Amino acid sequence: MRVLLTLLMTTAAACGQVGISEYLQPLGLxxxxxxxxxxxxxxxxxxxxxxxxxxxxxxxxxTLRDGAIDLWLAGEPAPGAGAGARGFVGVAFRVKGTGEKxxxxxxxxxxxxxxxxxxxxxxxxxxxxxxxxxxxxxxxxPEKYESYVDLxxxxxxxxxxxxxxxxxxxxxxxxxxxxxxxxDLFMGEESGGVALWVGPGTVAHFADFKVTKQ
Length: 214
Hints:
The protein has 4 helices and 15 strands. By secondary structure, it is mostly beta strands. A hairpin with a 4-residue loop joins strand 7 and strand 8 (101-107).
């Protein structure tokens, strides 16, 4: 097993914007260094809205087939965002090119403690871009690719994604059991890049990223 520590949100953040750009390639996102709630972080906001499946920030030179992705993230609706904004934030894996295809897990932080149980049930989401966005998955496979997890908008959340073969699991808050399991990844067993994922109408922060390759 080979372990690669990607110190993007710690040492690179300390070097400022130039240091971060050596490691990260934002697509449709404004990227800046930020100290956020006790952590050195990278902050992202949309440059242009309208992406159904969100925006990516690629980790330059990073690839993954099987292994684990660990990080801390926080998401909240951007000022002036529409009523449907949820603070969408997550991580993409097995990314092809500059995001033409990818698998992703993401969170909807404002759903975590909503008073509507249906919204709570949609707190964590799997998607496979471009063919299987959340609307199609919810319509064709209700409840299969979404689940509940306790979340709060704008608060740091520990996330771990474990990928092996055609399966992927999402762990949240350091839990021993996954919050969401996918045993039939739509892209199969391919290898590809790793990226931070930011949904529409979101202010996102990321810190302490680590990729462990199997």
